[in-house]
Please model this.
Amino acid sequence: MSKGKATAVANPNIAFIKYWGNADDALNLPANPSLSMNLAALTTVTTVEFRPGLPSDMVTIDGQPAEGHALERVVQHLDRVRALAEIDEKARVVSQNDFPAGTGLASSASAFAALSLAATRAAGLLLNEAEVSRLARLGSGSACRSVPAGFVQWDGDRDATSFARQVAPPDHWDLRDLVTIVSHQHKQVGSHHGHEIVSTSPFYAARLAAVPGLLATVMSGIQQRDLANVGPAIEADALAMHGVMMTSDPSLLYWEEATVAVLQGVRAWRHSGLGVFFTIDAGPNVHCFCERSDAAQVETRLRNLPGIQDVLVSGPGGGVRLVEYYLF
Ligand code: DP6
Model:
């Protein structure tokens, strides 16, 4: 790998217990611990090169030059890396997702995980996993969870201690996430704004109070590979988070008609004996969980619902890693 240039690959993650609301907005210190699984089937690849003489950072995302807020977030993150490495060179960054960005599929999680590792290596820094996770958190909170592999928990209430740690490796449980795409539209309201308005919801405190119990259930359910216990807790927390979103001021309503059709479908199939459960991030798409042995049947049923554009099937993914090729 040439000095000054590096490529990293990251998977997005899906939260079983959600991060929604900060104790500190500037540092992305979460109001509650969260727990997630990385998604092996979805990837972001990012190459970073610091170049002497470059007048400004040049960033390309999915073949388009980044501008506005997206560019600003990347430049701010590169500034953090430059400060750590004590360099001033501007960087060329090329990033490629193999899944639709901005639809609640957590593209900024894999984006900031990959950017953190590629940029620190390109700047000559050798950070450990906790340090990369902590840095990724400053770019996008949930990105810190895409740094360790497999099933991951993020907690810690101070800048130095707030990063993600593995709770089980990817091969611990052959769970499947059927990512059910009902819209490819870019979301209207980003998570950043959502975190800032959480406390306007009368349900916010109630959701936070429920988190420790749900987290304990999900944690022990993962350890025992017990979907019958994990599933209801995942659904309860997703619905509590969306209750907070819908009752915030301004109200955030991410669901579409097809979103509700999936929720109704999942519940009906479960009543008929199929082990499948849902969660939803800040977007209209639905993540449906089941054991690998049920995945084909669940996928067929999902594809037969109205308004479904695509179903991406993923098992548990690895952590952020370096690769030996470049995107430019
Ligand atoms: C609903 O602030 O990490 O996905 O930076 O926009 O990706 P972005 O989001 P972030 O909030 C994520 C919120 C969530 C829940 C979760 O992933 O825990």
